[in-house]
């Protein structure tokens, strides 16, 4: 397709977004990856548009679909909120087949798509396959750029696509059980950790991540990473499912937890070797503690059950700041940022780590900033607790044995036992639990007792 085809009508016409706005206002808040749930949508701004597959005008006949790629800024009612930018892939047909009915967005009443049916393109295998076809031939297409990793093998043609239904913040497509494409939904300018960090880990010679083979991004004014293609690991099982299976069978999970501790240390070592590290002095530690305290106060305003715990939880952050003000500075480096059992895959006996985007609710600049490695460690320790609390009856000893084994494994591979700095570990576990409270209150209220139990435990320390 020529570059001219990527910018011709109807995409180039100004009425496109206004005509889609009523449909998007109703459809977007129902999507799992939409971050602004609970806040009214007040408007939209078009960042860029491309016609990846030509759209036939209404009345032209034919059943071939068109494919539109849009970057759209969504404006919402929220004091001081920064508008979010979303990547939308819209299929356009004259008539939607019954098999695609769940993907329906609607029929614009006016504008260049009047009389046509608009739907979620990534649910259409024919349109989803077009993305990986574009990645087979790197280069530009209107405002988009498609790239392949140096030395990557050519992508085979004719790969069939199927969506994964497990993700919350993005959309992933599996192609022929050989590759998986993560399509980022809420996007920000700058290098994305899910591309940047696996490439760095691979450069360090660490084999614990599936190495990206191709990606695509917007071109200007500042590139946004939009999608990352990596090898798919068929037959692998994630640590979350393995942990639940162990709980159901009454088996310990300590061997797996110890292995995960070693893998975490290997990934941290690789990241420190390839990307800059910094030393955290007293001022930097106080700034981190202040951020934790601010997030706690904001969370308590949003989730009132937290309010009685606030004074005691603040002591965790105060102790962290006090310890950080003494002795040699601690090292901060790039980390995973959202490490838990679901981010670890086991194929046979080999563990890999995936999904390096960090906590999606945090700004991209914050997710790319160096952090103490204890942040990842705290995330995994919280995950053992989550797994154990899904099982009845609740068995706290199972979780505690996993936590001990994980820290032992990390110490074996890194030479540093995270339990040697309890104030740091408690502070980061507390910060993670506060994040979980807000997430569960907004998205899964039935799960709120899980992080609240951790809040109760952490508040009692010290």
Strand and helix order: HEEEEEHEEEEEEHEEEHHEHHEEEHHHHH
Number of helices: 12
The rounded Rg comes to 23 Å
- Biggest pleated-sheet summary: 7 strands, antiparallel
- Structure class: alpha+beta
The CATH homologous superfamily of the largest domain is called Aminoglycoside phosphotransferase (APH), C-terminal lobe
The fold-level CATH name of the largest domain is Aminoglycoside 3'-phosphotransferase, Chain: A, domain 2
Q: Summary?
A:
This protein has 12 helices and 18 strands.
Walk me through the topology.
Elements: H1 16-27, E1 41-53, E2 66-76, E3 84-93, E4 104-106, E5 117-120, H2 125-136, E6 139-141, E7 144-148, E8 161-163, E9 170-175, E10 179-184, E11 186-187, H3 193-203, E12 214-218, E13 225-231, E14 237-238, H4 239-249, H5 254-274, E15 278-280, H6 282-302, H7 310-324, E16 330-332, E17 344-347, E18 350-353, H8 364-367, H9 374-389, H10 396-414, H11 422-443, H12 449-459
Antiparallel strand pairs: 1-2, 2-3, 3-5, 3-11, 4-5, 6-7, 7-12, 8-9, 9-10, 10-13, 12-13, 14-17, 15-16, 17-18
Helix pairs in contact: 3-5, 4-9, 5-10, 6-7, 6-11, 7-11, 9-10, 9-11, 11-12
Question: If you had to describe this structure to a student in words, what would you say it looks like?
Answer:
- Mean pLDDT is 91; it is low at 1-10.
- It is globular, with a radius of gyration of 23 Å.
- Helix content is 38%, strand content 20%.
- It has 462 residues and is of the alpha+beta class.
- It starts with 15 loop residues before the first helix and ends with a helix.
- A seven-stranded antiparallel β-sheet has the order 6-7-12-13-10-9-8.
């Amino acid at each position: 397709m020529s570059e001219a085809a990527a910018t011709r009508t109807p995409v180039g016409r100004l009425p496109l977004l206004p005509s889609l706005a009523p449909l998007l206002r109703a459809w977007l808040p129902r999507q799992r990856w939409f971050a602004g749930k609970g806040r009214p949508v007040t408007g939209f701004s078009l960042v860029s548009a491309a016609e990846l597959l030509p759209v036939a005008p209404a009345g032209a006949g034919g059943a071939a679909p068109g494919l539109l790629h849009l970057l759209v800024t969504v404006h919402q009612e929220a004091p001081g909120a920064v508008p979010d930018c979303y990547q939308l892939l819209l299929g356009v047909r004259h008539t939607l087949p019954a098999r695609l009915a769940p993907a329906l967005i609607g029929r614009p009443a006016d504008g260049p798509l009047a009389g046509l049916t608009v739907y979620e393109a990534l649910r259409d295998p024919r349109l989803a396959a077009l993305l990986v076809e574009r990645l087979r031939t790197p280069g530009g297409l209107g405002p988009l750029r498609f790239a392949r990793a140096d030395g990557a093998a050519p992508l085979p043609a004719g790969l069939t696509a199927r969506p994964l239904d497990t993700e919350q913040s993005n959309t992933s497509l599996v192609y022929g059980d050989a590759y998986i494409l993560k399509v980022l939904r809420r996007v920000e300018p700058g290098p994305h950790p899910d591309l940047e960090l696996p490439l760095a880990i691979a450069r360090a010679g660490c084999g614990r991540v599936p190495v990206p083979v191709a990606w695509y991004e917007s071109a200007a004014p500042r590139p946004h990473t939009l999608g990352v293609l990596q090898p798919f690991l068929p037959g692998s099982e994630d640590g979350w499912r393995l942990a639940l299976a162990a709980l159901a069978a009454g088996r310990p999970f300590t061997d797996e937890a110890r292995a995960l501790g070693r893998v975490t240390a290997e990934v941290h070592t690789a990241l420190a070797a390839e990307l800059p590290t910094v030393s955290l002095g007293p001022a930097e530690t106080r700034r981190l503690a202040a951020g934790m305290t601010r997030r706690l106060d904001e969370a308590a305003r949003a989730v009132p059950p937290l309010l009685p715990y606030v004074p005691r939880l603040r002591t965790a952050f105060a102790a962290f700041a006090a310890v950080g003000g003494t002795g040699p500075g601690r090292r901060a480096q790039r980390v995973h940022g959202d490490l838990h059992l679901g981010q670890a895959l086991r194929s046979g006996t080999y563990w890999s780590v995936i999904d390096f985007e960090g906590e999606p609710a945090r700004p991209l600049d914050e997710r790319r900033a160096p952090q103490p490695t204890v942040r990842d460690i705290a995330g995994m320790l919280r995950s053992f607790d989550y797994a154990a609390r899904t099982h009845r009856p609740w068995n706290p000893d199972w979780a505690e044995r996993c936590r001990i084994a994980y820290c032992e494994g990390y110490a074996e591979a890194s030479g540093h036992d995270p339990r040697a700095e309890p104030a740091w570990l408690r502070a980061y576990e507390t910060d993670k639990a506060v994040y979980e409270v807000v997430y569960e209150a907004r998205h899964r209220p039935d799960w709120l007792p899980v992080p609240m139990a951790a809040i109760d435990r952490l508040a009692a320390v010290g």
